Amino acid sequence: MATFFPGESHTFSEYLLVPGYSSSQCIPNNVSLKTPLTRFKRGEKPAITLNIPMVSAIMQSVSGVDMGVALATEGGLSFIYGSQAPESEAAMVKAVKDHKAGFVQSDSTLTPDMTMEQVIELKEKTGHSTMPVTDDGTPKGKLLGIVTSRDYRPSRDDHQKKVSEFMTPREQLIVGDKNISLKVANDVIWDNKLNALPIVDDNDHLMGIVFRKDYDSHKTNPNELLDGDKRYMVGAGINTRDYAERVPLLIEAGADVLCIDSSEGFSEWQKRTIEWIRANYGEDVKVGAGNVVDAEGFRFLADCGADFIKVGIGGGSICITRETKGIGRGQATALIDVCRARDEYYEETGVYVPCAPTAASSTTTT
């Protein structure tokens, strides 16, 4: 039997904010945009708090490695898209985590017999000017030296010159051992006026590189969203089909939070997915669910144990859910209804479940 909601379905573009009183203390420096991402009980703190209230859509055209790094730099969080093989998604998650692990794995590794021409081509491809030289050309090979932009002059030097002829050899390098902490590594960099510090194991195999620019970047981006190991935080999208295979790979790669990616979240499939995660990982793995557009859908997913709930169906400017399935609701009306249910849920249970509206405003139609 069909249910008809009273009143109209409204979009954000139909609303304006009525400004309140602004005191002399109402200035940007006194404003905090910190926002809970995951559910928490009254009197407790959420496991994950965003420094800015923004997460990215789980879309191939939006949420890749670059977006993961960019959003975490600003204090938000990206959800790597799940419409790819589980191994590929896990590799993207790991790439974001490694980017700010402090100990960065080089993607511009050389061998001694490579030429300056190849060095220039690799620099143009990766954008990296600091390149370690290893015996086998892999980022985990035995460290033989390092090449920076100060070691050669493309405008004057022979481009067929071998790397071994102009690299800084291993015996002249200052390196860190495998047990060095990020703080100590940064101290070594500053004390010795270095731009990079290679980290090696007991057999002189390269383990990673700590860069001065990462320290400088952190100082200029105080809102960075970092985990306990000072790595960028990143989420990952999952589906309700291959979660038993995908979730373990994403967790191993370092995903901080998961989210079920579906245009319609009020379903038994999402319940089964959340139940599987809870049965195998307990409350340690955080997972969001959705999307829903009414109080009943919110209550269902909240009772299933979702850590946050996405709100909105078909409101995006390029979304075709409404055209293909004939479902949805004006985004403003949906959010008002769901947030009212969220507040009622909090009063009843003492558990606050954050809502994440999809990015639909003036492009949404009623």
Task: Describe the 3D structure.
It is built from eleven helices and 16 strands. The protein is of the alpha/beta class and 366 residues long. A six-stranded parallel beta sheet has the order 4-11-12-13-14-16. The protein has a three-stranded antiparallel beta sheet with strand order 5-6-7. Strands 8-9-10 form a three-stranded mixed beta sheet. A hairpin with a 5-residue loop joins strand 9 and strand 10 (206-211). Helix 9 (295-304) crosses helix 11 (331-349). The longest helix has 19 residues, at 331-349. The chain starts with 34 loop residues before the first strand and ends in a 9-residue tail after the last strand. Residues 360-366 have low confidence and may be disordered.
* Proportion of helical residues: 25-40%
**Number of E-state strands:** 16
H/E topology pattern = EEEHEHHEEHEEHEEHEHEHEHEHHEE
Segments where pLDDT lies below 50 for 5+ residues? 360-366
**SS field, number of helical segments:** 11
The gyration radius over C-alpha positions equals 25 Å
Shape: elongated
Provide the fold topology.
Layout: E1 35-36, E2 40-41, E3 49-50, H1 65-74, E4 79-80, H2 86-99, H3 116-126, E5 131-134, E6 143-147, H4 163-166, E7 168-169, E8 176-177, H5 182-191, E9 196-200, E10 206-211, H6 212-220, E11 235-238, H7 243-253, E12 257-260, H8 268-281, E13 287-292, H9 295-304, E14 309-311, H10 321-325, H11 331-349, E15 351-352, E16 355-357
Parallel strand pairs: 4-11, 8-9, 11-12, 12-13, 13-14, 14-16
Antiparallel strand pairs: 1-3, 2-15, 5-6, 6-7, 9-10
Helix pairs in contact: 1-2, 2-7, 9-11
